User: What shape does this take?
Amino acid sequence: MIYVDADACPVKAEVETVGTRHKVRIFVVSNGGIRPSANPLVESVIVLDGPDEADKWIAERAGPGDVVVTGDIPLAARCVEAGAQVLKHNGEFLTAANVGVALATRDLMTDLRAADPFRQGGGKGFTRADRSRFLDALERALRKAGT
Assistant: This one.
């Protein structure tokens, strides 16, 4: 199965395309506002409004053989621990070997932003190259999962 942390996910269409080709069930999890797909392999899951409700839903279900698509590092850490493959939107895999560093970096950046409220900037923009890397990585993840 593929679980998509769908709020602000720029690769939902790509997940559906690749997942459909592999005939994998896809759960698109959000707090709402996501257009449901007519694809019978895609199930839209609307969770309660509140912090981390989509993350909780995914983390309670993801495990070995599953692929989780998320940019949320704490969710990624929980899913990696449960045995799922985790893929960021830019095609980067989060694994047991690197998720701890990603979590520590996230926490450090949160502390730096809190210490300097005038600190501006954000992440890099999402590029065609990111989309291409994601498609390739999702293909590899699904082959590894045995689908």
In short: The domain at 2-121+128-145 is CATH 3.40.50 (Rossmann fold). The chain has one domain: 2-121+128-145.
